[in-house]
Amino acid sequence: MNIFIFLQDQLTVGAQQAAAAAGAVRTTAEISIFDEFLKGAYIYVPQLLLSVVAVYIFIERTMAINKSLKEEGNFMAKIKDYINQGKLDSARNLCATTNTPAARMIEKGISRIGKPLDDITKAIENVGKLEIYNLERNVGFMATAAGAAPMLGFLGTVIGMVEVFHKIQTEGPQIDKLGGGMMLAMITTVVGLIVGIIAYMGYNTLVSRIGKVIHKMEARAVEFMDILEQPGA
To answer: In this predicted model, what pLDDT tens digit does every residue of 77-105 receive, in sequence order?
Structure first.
């Protein structure tokens, strides 16, 4: 009976030692992976900063564009009625309360009523250019991020492969010592592509929506000039 108890105790101790050894190996592997990840921080950090700024610009510009597209359905009809009735102050007040790029263009045109149509057209065009500039503010950064993030990833890939070949040259082709460089090469590329894809899609989305705002501005400007060219205006 004592022999069985002794064997049981020995098996228990052996199992505990094996578990402790496995835990130590796992902890060492986790620390090694974390260390290798930190080695690429000089690549990851700029990529993550690009992604954060790109997301912020996308949200901020989306809100501004949505605000620019909001307009009463009978806005131009009211403007026409006010102009035909000679209520220019009411027309300007309506533009001020609407507070959209198209409304600000119309407001500038109303303030020029009485001058030649060419002067009114130029005044409206100048305001339109300023409004388009404001709509496109910071959008170009997203295009930069879409191109820069993958390039940073490729830079990390090249650096990682240089590290791999350096270790092969100095220490020989030992797979366990080459994993860090390969990991750096792969992770930086993946992160760069993800950030680049997100920034590229966001940029194209914003450009498309800004195009809608510009089209609406042009349509409102044409309608306004048609009102002024009518005999009763």
So the answer is: 898 888 888 888 898 999 888 888 999 99
Residue 152 to residues 147, 184, 201, 221, Cα–Cα distance (Å): 9, 12, 19, 44
Enumerate the domain spans of the chain. 1-39, 41-229
Q: Is the pTM of this model over 0.85?
A: no
Quickly tell me which residue has 């860090």 as its tokens: 180
Q: Where are the alpha helices (DSSP H) in 70-116?
A: 75-84, 88-98, 101-111
Q: What is the Cα–Cα distance from 201 to 46, expressed in whole angstroms? A: 19
pLDDT per residue as tens digits for the range 143-160:
999 988 888 888 877 777
Angle CA(173)–CA(176)–CA(178) in degrees, nearest 5?
Answer: 60
Beta bridge partners of 115: 113
